Amino acid sequence: MPKLPIGLWVEWIVDWAQVNLEELFDFITLIIKILVSGIETVFLAVHPLIVIFLVFILIWFVSNRKIAVGTAIGLYLIYNMQLWKPSIETLSLVLAAAALALLIGIPLGILTARSDLAHRIIMPLLDFMQTMPAFVYLIPAVLFFGLGQVPGLFATVVFAMPPTIRLTGLGIRQVPTQLVEASNAFGSTEWQKLTKVQIPLALPTIMAGINQCIMLSLSMVVIAAMIGAGGLGNEVLAGISRLDIAKGFEGGLAIVIMAIILDRVTQSLSEKRKVKV
Amino acid sequence: MSKIIVKNLVKIFGDHPEKAQKMMQEGYCKDEILKKTGQTVGVFDINFSVDEGEVFVLMGLSGSGKSTLLRCINRLIEPTKGSITIDDRDITLADPNYIREMRRKKISMVFQRFALFPHRTVLDNVAYGLEIQGAAMAERREKAARIIETVGLKGWEHSMPDQLSGGMQQRVGLARALANNPDILLMDEAFSALDPLIRKNMQDELLSLQNTLNKTIIFVTHDLDEALKMGDRIALMNNGTIVQIGTAEEILTNPANDYVEKFVENVDRTKLLTAEGVMKAPDPVVFLKDGPHVALRRMKEHGISSIFVVARDRGLEGLVLAEDALQAVKEHKEFKDIIIKDIPRVSADTPLKDVIPIIAGTRFPVAVTGVENKLMGILVKGSVLAGMARRGNNIA
Predict the structure, then answer these.
(1) Looking at the domain assignment, is residue A66 inside a domain?
(2) Which residues of A fall within a CB distance of 8 Å from B132?
């Protein structure tokens, strides 16, 4: 039996999309650029120490004191290592990617919980997205969006979205049937049932999905740097290519600090919302 | 007037209800049908009607189809065939908008495991039904607070459900159902998850609430004692069909078939239908050593005209009348001489049917005695009538 030209087929589809959907890609590029550079501009507008202080105050109030102090120390260390600007670039990319992944992922997750058909179609797609090596996404991303932050963000969104969909769907399916039944018995519309009962009760699980989404976005950053997404990934890549241990380690350390901060903050937010079912 | 009329109702779970229905008509049982067709018969050929203001009990063991039947009435479960008429409208034909309105305004439900929303306060749980109808925050909270007071939970409005005991949680469940001011209450094993003492309290409270509210209630239970206590009429279910419908008395005295008879055998008849079940505590009494002065004072304190006399071991000696005691005090008679020994007495397990003629034929209260002639309780006309009314039982 001859070899099936699966790779060729995919290539053909990508070529076709590149030619025919150019305007769509241009539009997406524009949106993403505005989003990422918007976040970047906000963070780079004032002196790093002021940003650190403001972030410290914010976390102190929305999360808890220990995390606020830890965050301030971590951010100061990044500033001290002179990695402030690449860190902000990375943060902007991560936040923008996570925001897009959530924007698409949460509604899809709700859909999988409400429709068995959607569940059966989407779940295998998620398996595919999660197991396909992340590097593979970079190729069509570059073809569609060129080099730079935009394809990096595209690949990151694809990579980080599955857990959001899965955990949102899981959270809603796990709402006890008797509560769904009670909601129906009082004459709720579908929308009321979703917003007043299912989503509030699924929130801890959905928050865990958001946390996973942000963590995965961050882990994609180094890979995205290979197609010019910049940020801390660049530092690490430069460290590798020049065998510069110091540079590589400092870049890596900054990523770890960012990861811990984002993880602790999102986790503490989800714990605050936990209710016993 | 019939509020709810159910006719030829069938619910079969599965993709080919026709097959199962045909087999059911041919007399196959549920298990055989499940094995042969893969269809589960929920309920089959159900007919009954419920009057306005009636408490109608669906009783049966688990798997008898009583919860399925209950859920057909507000269409949480879609019936396969048959009709359910509520206020002259067949709701099996109604569109989703009508059903939603009906659930909002006309029918509320109370659940076995309470099904309170854990993320909402007691107040917001009770206000849920009003909230989804679009009532303004202030209005719905005020209404909810009033209902919460009715069910005796004032002061707990801002607690979360998991801070409340089981009994209190079900009060919230009841309040939530009442907040919409529905005509019909569906209660799905509402008290079954509560421990016996709390359960009895809740039963009594629901009955006294029902006196003022006069709702049409369909009450599902697997507990015959509860069914007999709560129901104006009871439908006994087995294997998805109704075996017998009737008042408690009809079911107890005239079981329709072997199944009902077996079921009914397990009723605690001693508690339900005997002297012990309706007697008052033996208080006040005088002891033999006390004398006429004490007897007179006790009678005066309690506003009664006769009093039982017991020995130190509470063995019954007899009865003393107020006029005799008065005479004894005046004429310095012996206390022993004025005790009337020939008084009606019954044992604790005497059926109520036999007690009634005795009470009717005497001017004295009737003593209930246990082993060694010990005084266990007193029967007066008032307490017997009250006891019968409480159990909703026609004994005569």
Answers:
(1) no
(2) 186-189, 192, 196
Chain B partners within 8 Å of A198 (Cβ): none
For residue B44, being part of any structural domain is answered with yes
Q: Kind and range of the H or E element at A27?
A: helix A22-44
Do both B211 and B342 map to the same domain? no
Q: DSSP string spanning A186-216?
A: TT--HHHHIIIIIHHHHHHHHHHHHHHHHHH
Would the CA dihedral through B152, B155, B159, B165 be positive or negative? negative
Residues of B in contact with A201 (CB under 8 A): 117-119
Q: Is A242 exposed, middle or buried (0-12, 13-18, 19+ CB in 10 A)?
A: exposed
Q: Where are the beta strands (DSSP E) in B130-192?
A: 184-188
Of B267, B287, B307, which residue constitutes the final position of a domain?
A: B267
CB contact under 8 A, A179 and B133: no
- Interface probe for A, chosen from B119, B126, B133, B186 (most Cβ of A below 10 Å), is B119
Report ipTM (2 d.p.). 0.74
pLDDT 10s digits, B6-56? 999 989 888 888 888 888 878 777 788 888 888 888 888 899 999 999 999
pLDDT, one tens digit per residue, over A92-148 is: 889 888 888 999 999 999 999 998 999 999 999 998 888 888 788 888 888 888 888
**Quick one: B237 and B377 in the same domain?**
no
